[in-house]
Amino acid sequence: MLSHRILRRTFLKTAPALGLLASCGKSSKIRLALNWKPEPEFGGFYAAPYSKHGLDVDILPGGAGTPTVQMIGAGSVDFGIVSADEIILARSHGNDVIALFAVYEDSPTGIMVHASRNLASIGDVLKEGTIAIQSGLPFARLLERKFGFGHVKVVPSPGGDITSFLNDEKFAQQCYLTSEPIAARRKGTAVKVFAVSDIGYNPYTTVLAVSGESLRKNPDRAKAMVAAVRDGWRAYLDDPKAANQQMNQLNPTMDAQTFAEVAEVQKPLIETEATRRDGLGTMSRERWETLIGQFKELGDITQTIPAEECFRLL
Amino acid sequence: MFDNQHVVIAGMNLQIDSGEFLAVLGPSGSGKSTLLRMIARLAEPDSGTIRTEPNGDRFQTAYVFQDAHLLPWRNVLDNAALPLELMGKSRIERNEKARRALEQVGLLAALDRYPAQLSGGMRMRVSLARALVTEPRLLLLDEPFAALDEITRFHLDVQLRELWQRRGMTVIFVTHSVSEAAFLANRAVVMGRSGGAIKLDRILELPSIRNNELRSDPRLGQEMRLLLGAIEE
Amino acid sequence: MKKTLLPPLIPFVLLTLIAEFLVRQGFVRPYLVPAPSAVLRAMIDSRVELVHALLSTSAGSLAGFAMSALTGIAIAVLLSTSRGVQRAFYPYAIFFQTVPLIAIAPLLVIWFGFGIQTVIASAFVASVFPVIANTLSGILSTDPPLRDLFRLYGASPLVTLFKLRLPAAMPQVFTGLRVSAGLAVIGAIVGEFIAGGGLSSVVDIARTQQRIDKVFAAVLLASLLGLGLFGLINLLSYLTLRRWHASEQTQ
Q: What pLDDT does A2 receive?
């Protein structure tokens, strides 16, 4: 069935091109899709000296529900920002996405509660009241397994909006350590945040990823991209002001002061012992294996995925 | 009277006697329908008066429109009984009177049917019955048979004339058709092209029994010629 | 029945077969578009969860739609009483049509809380305007000769409204209800995304788990719900207007 294979390969080659943006010809403009609005978590990407590494990069801001992992798989973007758990799920469904650079070594996801409740641990949060959480996320299901949701009312995560949280003392909300708590404190409410990594669930977050096919076809480009991004994050950690200004213009929903505050608060998540030893964005096989094991335990994947297929250090 | 700043009828003087069958003719725009609506008190003249004597119960007037305009969600009986219902009569009384009116137009067998199931001619007959159900002393008709085919129209002409003779009411019949006017009426008035001056007011010289034989009578043709002449002036 | 159900089924079956072939042979990647067989399997595997969710979304849609129908007709009747009232308040009715539901849904949650009451409110906001607009149009477009007839026999405006204008408006009322039904389902789904529950919740969780087959299954059920509601209104319309349908065309 030679003709069949040729037909199939041709189709597979053309199908991604029929994706979202028409890539007319072979333009050298590289598309990087973010999975949220421009905020300090992407600072290094905006500060990166792409031209110095011979790259012409177009950063595409995202929002709630931007399907970056599918966009990478479909070929409609060259690089995208995803999280490690998304990569594992994608790979289990046959979507060949590979991690290249992890911005957050430690997951910034947490549960935010009113400080006035004087709760001691994450389990106490689930004893009463309401919790706004993305029920499909692995950590949510881990929480349910460990503590049970029998005594708490589970509602959808409001995606950054803290109005319901502010109005109700017994309302707990999934958050990013770098985001909602700061906003809440601004509004005069004292909060306490329980990091999800405390229950042992700690996926790499804000991860630069690429499709396996793209990596095979153009390894030099991927290498240059990682190098540029690494330089960018170094520059941003040293001085975030310029990139913050640029991002603030693109995303006026956050004010300049918050931008500065968040850039500061996120530092310990980005620069850790591991990065000081092995460089910014580094990832380890052990961390990936732990995560894969947790997914298997949850039943989200049926076969073990080899950890070394999930990431590449360039 | 004025209609959107356009003079429809001006300077009209008309007296109609009780029991007359009056045909009102005229070209389009001569204000025939407007005249009828004013007599029915559906429109008010800007100057001048319309007097009916004796000026008793206003429900002495009935109106038949160009189309039957029945209520499609009611059956034939309820449609015919509508005027009495609006006047507040009891169900028993109005159904009884409606039945009688429908009998007079020959529709007693169709009481339970709905307008959608009736032919154009039958619908017009229901409309007629509806007009007669209050036993009016003045019956106004505005080109009621214009949309029907000729045979149905001839039938209804004869029926209308008989009803008029039996009840002794005054009938004012607006029409475009010279032959219909001549066949039905004992007096005909021709209105002018614009602004309603009366061009002709004539008692027709025709026998009082109007049947299909009259259609081929030369006297009918003569009256028609006279009426047509007045219209075309 | 055969004439209405069979023709639309044919393209559906064809499309399903083509999609199945494309995915099985690898022309389309299964994580972008699921094979119809995978969607079917997801529906069977998760049937308890999906049925539960469908019932919840149905309840929210139906309740919101019922509110729209009753309130919409009532508002239209009120607006029909005077030109002045119309001019003053009709623009606000249009507001219900144009307000972006996604934007006010979070507000609805703040006012009504997390739960089905917000879903109903959302369904209501999404679906009330077509009822108002169509009912009002129907009431105002009554045949002038019929209005003359009622006037001739001394009927008060109120009697004319309930014995003539409202019944005469029924075909247009049903047109409004038909449009409103589908919008009520959409409104309920949007409400659920923010307030939780129902088919939206299934879609959201499945999407997070990258279970695109389950997403399609839930979306398919939501579409069928809208279709079902639409069909129900059509049936009601047929039963109510059965006697006067023919006369609508000739008169």
A: 46
